[in-house]
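pinned: reference chain
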Amino acid sequence: MANTYHQVYIHAIFAVKYRNAVIGSGWKDTLYGVIGNLINETSCKTLIVNGMPDHIHCLIGLKPVISISELMKAVKAKSSKYINDHGLTASRFEWQDGYGGSSYGQSQLDAVYRYIQNQEAHHNKQSFREEYVEFLQKFNVAHDEQYIFSELQ
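pinned: its structure tokens
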């Protein structure tokens, strides 16, 4: 639509199924690039993708014609297919169901970008579960901790 302007920034977080730490250091940068390209293919804009062996953070300029859930569904499905098609893990790779998503304003982008960029240093002090629950609490997202992550039985 002509004369339509938008500025929607989303910080999305999603985890490997059962929080298995299987994203290898030898191919993590390739995966981040694949995820960034998948986001860009939807006409959204990737600002940064980074993570740890068990989870991913993305900072995204969201195009209003796509929902966050549609975007995450496509990114997770296509990136797991990429991992499996290229045999990057010893067994079948899957992402955990669901994702976390928070919105930010332009003035907050530098801080969020740096936070995502410095994941390794951050996780020397805090586990992924602690980080995720902290985000939910910070943004007043109603949740039941027993359903946050699937545990390996």
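why pinned: The chain has a mean pLDDT of 90. Helices lie at 28-41, 68-85, 109-117, 119-122, 128-138.
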